[in-house]
Amino acid sequence: MLNQAARYYPILRALKKRGVLKSESVLEIGAGPTGLGQFRKLRFIGCDVLFPTTPAWPMVPVIASAGALPFRDKSFSVVIISDVLEHIPADVRSTIIRESLRVTREFAVFGFPCGQTAQESDRKLFEVYTHKGYKPPIWLQEHLLAAFPEPSIFDDVKGWDITSFGNESIRFHSWMMRMEMHRLFNYFIKASILLVPRLLELLLRKMDSPPYYRHIFVLERAGE
Fold first, then answer.
1. Measured between alpha carbons, how far is 110 from 80 in angstroms, rounded to an integer?
2. Which among 1, 26, 28, 192 has most CB atoms closer than 10 A?
3. What is the CATH architecture assignment of 2-221?
4. What is the overall mean pLDDT for the chain?
């Protein structure tokens, strides 16, 4: 739960900065059953290849592949794709990026764990799970199948202004993921999200320091 807060809060700040938080024209690719709706009651379209549990309000669920989105060009004000590209084979990632940019009118937000050092931290986390006798979660198993994306993934993207910032220090991320193995810690975080979300967000912002586990990229249509 804290891991999700750490990656969604900066995305929500990016949306707020661009005046999108009151818009209903938002698509999240790879949203899972909750997506950004856990942290902002903003109606949005959530797209995924399947939903393992019933999708939660305020998301409007759509089952579809990120590589072939069933939407017209420029259908949404913003497209969000968070912690998805690292699960995609490297030779397919450019297709996912093109599709994401095709369906947005204004900007797209991409977030993903970035680079070899970040992936090595997940490799060590995998070893912690197995050492403790726990089955590593599917997402963690998938993190070890292909090299994490690099910032250069956007080098061939033309016609877009790109800004980026780091999210979660690797040290903090490693600590957080170990703590999330404990049920009481997760209960505490869930209560914090409900009762003191601004304080939690402030604390998480202080954890955004290099070397970063994740980078977030905002692509805006050039000249708009």
1. 6
2. 28
3. 3-Layer(aba) Sandwich (3.40)
4. 93
